[in-house]
Design goal:
The complex is a heterodimer of chains A (about 100) and B (about 900). Chain A is built from four helices and three strands, in the order αβααββα. Chain A is an alpha+beta fold and about 100 residues long. In chain A, helix 1 crosses helix 4. Classes of the chains: A alpha+beta (about 100), B alpha+beta (about 900). At the A-B interface, helix 2, helix 3 and strand 3 of A face helix 1, helix 2 and helix 4 of B.
Chain lengths: ~100, ~900
């Protein structure tokens, strides 16, 4: 996956769905990608620790509806701001790539 | 911001790695439970769900590792791990660790100690503004081979007017009598020009210093005192300024106190300068009007104009000398080739000890090298015991670099502990180490630790650690290139490979070579020291004691009670009569200025001519000069070679007579000595005797031509009482002082010492360098023999089976011992050959430290290899003998 993409997706998911545990984020990823994106769920963790250390998300232990314990990650204020900036950057970037690809063909 | 935040988080994780790991474990298992739940919901059995959950999650350990790398600073984390590991493995082998730390502390400590001295004495610039512009100016008579003949007042003015110096001042170290305390005290005074402090750019701690506006032809009343005198004599009184003091019967006013760390950057008579007084050197007590040929000013210090190089300045000085010689041909006879010479002030202050310190620094560097090589050899032995451990690490996926890093961490930890221990010991034993040093070492008071020393200690520790750690680490890791083999080999016997053994042999040969160099250096110094002790000083020091007296020299000659010959003779007679009555004193004599042997006396030389020789009036010659009483030669037991000694009849009313030493007779009189005339001080003096040479400048210094005049035919402003048969006890010393004060309480007594004590002082520097060199050499020898013993003991163990078979087949014990000795002998020969070559080169660098022995001294260069070879062979022989002691059956079965 493209560098930084995973971070962006995680932030976006947390914003739209509220606090989620790692499994929930992974399930959501698979769901929206319609199973195109099959990733080892363990690979989420480095991204989560990176985002948490940057102060963009915050983890907290809680219980699921079924009473299982899980660490829920929520997006922070700084995370929201960063998400805005990163989305902006992603749009510019993808627009540029789109334009280039259109010219080539 | 977020990067800084992350860095902090990462850094924090270094210290709670365990906690982070547990947290991750918890999160991962929670995640797996959720996955299992979901798979079970899709209808899987519990077991199926569990397997499927793991598959969906991916490699758990890889994921954890990625997490670790992401959350923390990996290299730092590994370093911590390596350090922990190193500590554990060092603690497990305390014998090795203690040996290593001790030798390292010794090696690094010795280097830091010597460097601290070198740093203070040679490296640190003089503590003045722009010290590189401070120079000394010397007058030489190249035509007659006389150096540093002094300067006259008109010459000082010429120098000041020349477009070379910003400021320039004469410097004139003298003794003075400071009265006012409970007794009159002799203190060291520096007579200077008015520009002295301006030349140095020195500021007082209290009050003011004198300057050009104080200029008068004679001495000014304003004097500046040292911090030491201020505290000792005046109790550090803050209202000292304006205090009137009596010095040499003259009144002076204290106008300033210098800071504690201010020291005159030049030679003194006896101890630090305690008082500075300025004079124009053109009125009483100096010749008035000034005479160009009377070069009574012993030194000149000056500050070069900015931007002027030493060379450019010297060129201008040469031009000035040429111009003066042309203008005043009478004062500068062309045959004497008067010349002016510049020298950096720093160099003229410390130049005499530079060779000694450089040699010691080099030697101590060699010692550290030895320590490093020795440790490398130990580490190789150690790493061979660890072959298996390293092989396992590599088999588990550690890269070679990672293994090297781990081993280096261990050696660096060792050397840093060694360095730290060294610094601790040095700081604790600072004062006792300083006491070991010769007290006449210039700038010794400035010896202290500074940032540069601490940096050096750190760098030395690191470099040493890498030096002794890297090669064994490279070696250990490369031999494990095939972990499979090492696992097997290590598993079988735990014994090192042949390669490691060969490597150790190279190290041991290096050790032997290094110790040959150190021992040759030490040997040459021992020989020099021995030669120095063998030197005939020209007098008998046994039971000889000296007390020195300063006779005040008031600025107004009319005030001088000892201005005429008569009172000096009377004083001398009275002193002799009274000291002879002291218990134990058999004989006594009195000498005038510069009469004390071994005390560097050539500070004041006189110029003379020989009227009886053809070229007489044109050529000036120089010689040391002193005046002595009739008993002098008898009391010192200095034999007269020809002619007669002085008698009580040689007075101011009789013919002026001198006695010259052998060096004088040989150099200037060539066979016809008795009856010849010597002209100086406007009189002709007749040579009545020739005396054996006395070592006046120290035992190991060449004897200079010297003229002795009869004491009672002139005056003196300094006297030395020589007592024969004196015990040198503190009580007697006190009695001598009382005797002098009883005759005239205005005469300060100082330097009351036995001739033995003075010889010790004169040998102090030589003894110091010898002591250190010998210690380094002994240490080197010890390390080398341990090294060779270790390698040989190992070699013998390796071959014990072979030896047993040989014995079983009928070999004699002798054959086995010889067989076992051979590799050691070869190592020794190789090391000694290498060492001798290096020592040959090194010895030539220390020529200036040698006395009576050539740098290629055959005795040293034969004795050292023989001694070393015998010790090395002994180190080989012990294991070799052990080889034959093992019963063959036992060895074969082992």
């Amino acid at each position: 996956m493209l560098q930084g993409t995973l971070d962006l997706i995680i932030l976006r998911t947390l914003r739209s769905m509220g606090p989620q545990h790692a499994y929930g984020i992974a399930a959501r990823l698979e769901q929206i990608s319609e199973d195109l994106l099959k990733l080892n769920q363990g690979t989420l963790y480095p991204a989560l620790v990176r985002l948490e250390q940057q102060g963009w998300i915050k983890g907290k232990w809680d219980k699921t509806e079924k009473g299982r314990e899980a660490k829920y990650y929520a997006i922070t204020k700084a995370g929201l701001k960063a998400l805005g900036e990163e989305t902006q950057r992603w749009r510019q970037m993808s627009g540029l790539v789109e334009k280039l690809l259109a010219e080539e063909s | 911001m977020r990067h800084i935040r992350r860095l902090f988080a990462k850094f924090g994780n270094l210290f709670r790695n365990g906690q982070a790991d547990r947290e991750l474990d918890r999160e991962v298992s929670a995640h797996l439970v959720l996955l299992e739940d979901s798979f079970q919901r899709r209808g899987m059995s519990l077991d199926e769900a569990r397997i499927e959950a793991r598959r969906a999650y991916g490699g758990i350990e890889q994921a954890k590792q990625l997490h670790r790398e992401e959350r923390s600073i990996l290299w730092l984390e590994q370093t911590f791990a390596d350090l922990r590991y190193a500590c554990r493995s060092l603690l497990k082998t305390p014998g090795f660790t203690i040996t290593a730390v001790l030798t390292l502390a010794l090696g690094i400590g010795a280097n830091v100690a010597i460097f601290t001295v070198v740093n203070a004495v040679l490296l640190r610039p003089l503590p003045f503004q722009h010290p590189e512009r401070l120079v000394r100016v010397f007058g030489d008579l190249d035509g007659v081979g006389a150096k540093d003949i002094g300067t006259s007042e008109p010459e000082i003015e010429d120098l000041q007017r020349a477009d070379i110096f910003d400021d320039l001042s004469a410097i004139f170290p003298v003794s003075t009598a400071l009265s006012g305390g409970d007794h009159t005290e002799r203190i060291e005074m520096l007579g200077t020009g008015f520009d002295y402090f301006q030349t140095l750019g020195a500021e007082p701690a209290l009050g003011r210093v004198y300057g050009p506006r104080d200029a008068v032809p004679g001495f000014t009343e304003a004097v500046v005192i040292s911090d030491g005198l201020w505290k000792r004599q005046f109790g550090g009184d803050p209202r000292i300024l304006g205090r009137r003091i009596r010095v040499d019967e003259d009144g002076y006013t204290i106008v300033g106190v210098m800071p504690p760390d201010f020291r005159h950057p030049g030679q003194t008579l006896a101890g630090d300068v305690e008082m500075w007084a300025a004079a124009g050197f053109a009125a009483d007590p100096f010749p008035s009007p000034p005479v160009r040929a009377r070069r009574f000013l012993p030194g000149v210090i000056a500050r070069l104009k900015p931007g002027l190089s030493l060379q450019q300045a010297q060129h201008r000085l040469d031009a000035l000398a040429a111009r003066l010689a042309q203008t005043y041909p009478k004062d500068y006879p062309s045959a004497s080739k008067w010349a002016l010479r510049l020298e950096p002030a720093e160099q003229s202050l410390t130049g005499s000890v530079r060779p000694m310190l450089v040699v010691l620094l080099a030697a101590v560097g060699f010692v550290l090298l030895m320590v490093a090589v020795n440790l490398a050899s130990l580490l190789v032995a150690r790493s061979s015991a660890r072959t298996r451990e390293l092989a396992i690490r590599q088999a588990l996926g550690a890269s070679r670099a990672r293994v090297i890093r781990q081993l280096l961490t261990e050696s660096l930890l060792l050397s840093l502990i060694g360095g730290l221990a060294a610094m601790l010991v040095l700081m604790l034993s600072r004062s006792s180490l300083l006491a070991l040093m010769p007290s006449d070492l210039p700038r010794i008071a400035e010896v202290h630790f500074d940032a540069r020393v601490v940096i050096l200690a750190c760098v030395l520790s690191l470099v040493t650690g890498v030096l002794f750690g890297l090669t064994p680490a490279l070696h250990a890791s490369s031999s494990s290139a095939d972990p499979n083999r090492d696992l097997k080999e290590g598993g079988r016997s735990g014994s090192p490979s042949r390669r490691q053994h060969r490597f150790r042999s190279v190290l041991v040969a290096t050790e032997i070579a290094l110790s040959v160099v150190l021992l040759c250096g030490a040997g040459l110094l021992v020989r020099s020291f021995w030669n120095t002790l063998q030197v005939n000083p020209g007098f008998d020091s046994e039971g000889l004691m000296v007390a020195r007296i300063w006779i005040p020299n008031p600025n107004n000659p009319a005030m001088n009670r000892y201005r005429a010959t008569q009172p000096v003779a009377a004083l001398s007679h009275e002193l002799l009569r009274r000291v002879k009555a002291l218990p134990g004193v058999e004989e006594a004599a009195i000498g005038g200025n510069n009469s004390v042997p071994l005390e560097n006396n050539s500070l004041r030389r006189i110029l003379f001519s020989l009227p009886d020789q053809a070229d007489s009036t044109q050529t000036q010659r120089s010689a040391d000069f002193t005046a002595v009483s009739p008993e002098f030669f008898q009391v010192l037991k200095t034999p007269l070679l020809r002619g007669r000694s002085f008698t009580e009849a040689d007075t101011e009313k009789s013919k002026r007579v001198v006695i010259v030493n052998e060096a004088f007779a040989k150099q200037y009189l060539a066979g016809r000595d008795l009856g010849q005339r010597v002209n100086f001080g406007t009189f002709d003096w007749e040579v009545v005797g020739v005396l054996t040479d006395v070592r006046d400048d120290g035992l190991d210094a060449n004897v200079q031509p010297r003229i002795y005049r009869a004491l009672y035919q002139g005056t003196a402003n300094e006297m030395a009482i020589f007592l024969r048969g004196a015990s040198g006890s503190a009580g007697l010393k006190q009695q001598v002082i009382q005797v002098v004060q009883g005759v005239d309480s205005d005469l300060p007594v100082y330097g009351v010492r036995t001739m033995h004590e003075m010889m010790e002082t004169s040998l102090a520097r030589r003894r110091f360098s010898l002591f250190l060199m010998a210690a380094f050499g002994a240490l080197a020898l010890f390390l080398a023999s341990i090294g060779i013993f270790g390698v040989m003991a190992y070699a013998v163990t390796q071959r014990s089976q072979e030896f047993s078979i040989r014995v079983a087949l009928g070999a004699q014990h002798r054959d086995i011992v010889l067989l076992a000795l051979r590799p050691g002998a070869m190592l020794t020969v190789a090391g000694v050959a290498l060492g001798l070559t290096a020592a040959w080169g090194a010895a030539h660098l220390m020529t200036s430290l040698l006395f009576g022995v050539s740098p290629g001294d055959p005795v040293t260069f034969l004795a050292v290899p023989v001694a070393l070879a015998s010790i090395a062979l002994l180190a080989c022989w012990i294991p070799a003998r052990r080889a034959v002691r093992v019963p063959p059956v036992a060895a074969l079965r082992s």
